[in-house]
Task: structure prediction
Amino acid sequence: MEPDSRDPSAIEPARQRRAQQIYRRRLVLGVFLLALIVLIIVLVIAFSGDSDETGTTSTETSETTSTSLIAATYTAVLTGDDSVPPVRTESTGTLTLTYDPEVPSLTFVLEVDGLTDPSVSAIYEGAPGTSGTAVLTLFPGPTEIGVKRGVLAEGTIEDADLTGTLAGQTVGDLIALIKEGNAYTSVGNKSHPVDAIRGQIR
Result:
């Protein structure tokens, strides 16, 4: 004979089994929800990191673009009046620097007019009226005897050619120095070994 479903002794075990089933289902659901929340947090952090890296890359690219060198020509007119101290002379000179971003390369042509016995020439880091430090030798010698008119030196400037405060740096750093108005060139001779004629590069 089957037990009476209204019998309290039969109903109670059924209720307990039902409660245990509900508890197990809630426990499984809670674990699932917790795992889902953890997964969402991990995904948010991962995508946030990618976004930060992308942002950094964009910033770096923007900075690189903003500092990229463009085609440009820089010149200096050399006279005795700009020498330190000033030199009384009719001799003059011209330095022309040309940057080509396609190659890329920085070339120069140094010309003098009427300078006697030119012996050395360099680009220096320094403001007008000051004595700076050589950062690039344009003409190392030997001395050209007599009065010189025309090209004294020309060539292509490489990173390895830089000296002084620019040693180990790049042609871009030299150009930055020029743009700041903090670079000049001079030509020396027997009478004035450093600044026979001089001019700020602009």
Q: What stands out?
A: The chain has two domains: 1-68, 72-200. The longest strand covers residues 105-116. The first helix runs from residue 8 to 66. DSSP finds two helices and eight strands in the chain.
